[in-house]
Design brief:
Two copies of one chain form a homodimer. With 362 residues, chain A is α/β, with parallel strands linked by helices. Chain A has helices spanning 5-12, 16-24, 31-44, 50-57, 73-86, 110-122, 138-153, 188-201, 217-232, 249-262, 274-286, 320-332; strands at residues 62-67, 100-105, 127-131, 157-161, 182-186, 207-211, 242-244, 268-271, 296-298, 315-317, 343-346, 349-351. The first copy, chain A, binds a DNA duplex (16 and 16 nucleotides) through helix 2 and helix 4.
Chain lengths: 362, 362
Amino acid sequence: MTVTLADVAHRAQVSPATVSRVLNGNYPVATATRERVLRAVTELDYVVNGPASSLAAATSDLVGILVNDIADPFFGILAGAAQSRIGAPAGAGRAGGEKLAVVCNTGGSPERELTYLTLLQRQRAAAVILTGGAIEDAGHSAAVASKLAKLAAAGTRIVLCGRPALPEDGTVPPSEGGTVTATLTFDNRGGARRLTEHLLNLGHTRIGYVAGPAERTTTRHRLEGHRDALREAGLPYDPSLTLHGPYDRASGQDALPRLLSTAPDLTAVVAANDTIALGVCASARTRGLRIPDDLSVAGFDDLPSATDTVPALTTVRLPLHEAGARAGLLATTATPPTGPGGVEPVPAELVVRESTGVVRGG
Amino acid sequence: MTVTLADVAHRAQVSPATVSRVLNGNYPVATATRERVLRAVTELDYVVNGPASSLAAATSDLVGILVNDIADPFFGILAGAAQSRIGAPAGAGRAGGEKLAVVCNTGGSPERELTYLTLLQRQRAAAVILTGGAIEDAGHSAAVASKLAKLAAAGTRIVLCGRPALPEDGTVPPSEGGTVTATLTFDNRGGARRLTEHLLNLGHTRIGYVAGPAERTTTRHRLEGHRDALREAGLPYDPSLTLHGPYDRASGQDALPRLLSTAPDLTAVVAANDTIALGVCASARTRGLRIPDDLSVAGFDDLPSATDTVPALTTVRLPLHEAGARAGLLATTATPPTGPGGVEPVPAELVVRESTGVVRGG
DNA sequence: CTGTTAGCGCATTCAG
DNA sequence: CTGAATGCGCTAACAG
């Protein structure tokens, strides 16, 4: 029924070994022979049996990209860029030696993150890219670190993109194996600091902050940057001005009324990402607040939608496309990471648009 | 180095076959034995070798979800819903018999679509879900149909979600094998028709249309619905009022000025999707056009961002989450599709918000 | 309910 | 440069 390597070999009048060699191209084969084999492959419409090949070679061409929320363009851009660097280069009709880059949506669930890692481990994945903030739970972190160590020990390349490097504090016994290949860390803290500085320069002193989920590294780092700026300016940090919630629109929408009831004197709101900021803007509209005249609003990430608000959002740009592409590269080729400890910093750039202005009452 | 089934069997004092049985749970095993095996598995930290298992069983637990643009929430929502119905149910710590649901981003490229299908075929994928509009090129359609037939023949379940059913016109010789498992067709045409009718009821007669890429089924169906409404109202269809472009924001932004220069008397613009509509709105703002007083704007899909425009977008709601979940279900379980020919229609509902109003000059 | 026996299809040694 | 032989780790009949 299904055509195998042996069938191709038979038709091409060569041994299975030779067919394998031309297919993998890792070995010298006479041109004439190669062509004969290739012809047989086409004629028979032969497709390699991946599992068999992976079993024999003890490696697969699967590359997993884990994301927290596939419906969020932040991850979509990252994953898309990584995937385009890895898999299926356009034009490769026959699907030669390409890797199969796939994205796995954890939905932000620690369990699913681990499950996906196990599934990928089971498949003997060639590489795994973990994107976005990590969950800061001691138990879970240890579990992930241990899992990654095992994956690495089994030859899987590991790239962290947008999350901090794993601690090398012996959390994972060296006996457990390999180590993370490369880490791309976003300058969340610095970006957030510059953003809040921008607001302070505009005269704002009562600034609300709509943070992400409490247990995420991204959330913490961005918030820390915010507090850094406040501290440097000699301003106190008022915890009641910070609200936590998911990285979504509704979170921003819910937050604004609550912030304003707590602190009616608020003149600016910083959202932990653009999506939340959109929610804040929507809520501001509902309340008849003009942006930036009555309220300055800022986001983070500089997603395409940041220019859909009225007015366009002041935010912090993360080079998501570049970072994703780089992650894809590091995951597949032997390119060594450049930074110390394999950690490459990714810059965050303040982008001032129209949603922030000098404090009202001037 | 790496622990195998045999190691577990040895430690649990049973045969490899028994271990396999408890792991797959498809066979009766004495509780005591099962527990002993499970304990050995934990102690040894055993992880199934996927390729070996797939090879022996001639099936894998991989489910591929193909999307046209992973950075587009339309696909993110669809894929996320499908994936959550398939893979890694939260709480399954050990990663038991779950399937590995992965999304593959074709970026709208026909070549990559085919390459991914080949890669999935190579992996002997358990199922493949193709989402979103199909490319209307005779050659490519035939290639895809042929590929799908082979996949189906090899036991892979095929679900089409958001694209029309494959023609059963003998394009693919029956000898080539199986057939599509199920198809979820979105009522793009009907939704588009109702949307334009809504505009006509408001008195608009000069309506611009910003369509998607010309060669996509989704594009064509939505445009047809628009024209249907026009025709039924006895209005002529003016091709110069239709512009084609990608399904993105920039497309809408570029289109409005061009439409207005062609037809300064335009009172409404229909965009082929919400993302394009956001671009149209942005462009309108730039030109100082008030929505809906000066210009009515409508979108399609009802993405979360449809409420981010000012004012909120009139659009057509597609139950993306439900459709994605249904696709995931059909792809994995033996649930038979309900409709004739395995085609289940997905309704499209007009959602009137504030971006459309009665024609100006009243 | 459990053990034994065979392969699954391919990538590698190793010889030629 | 090419062929023959071996085994990757697991599942699926068969017995028992």
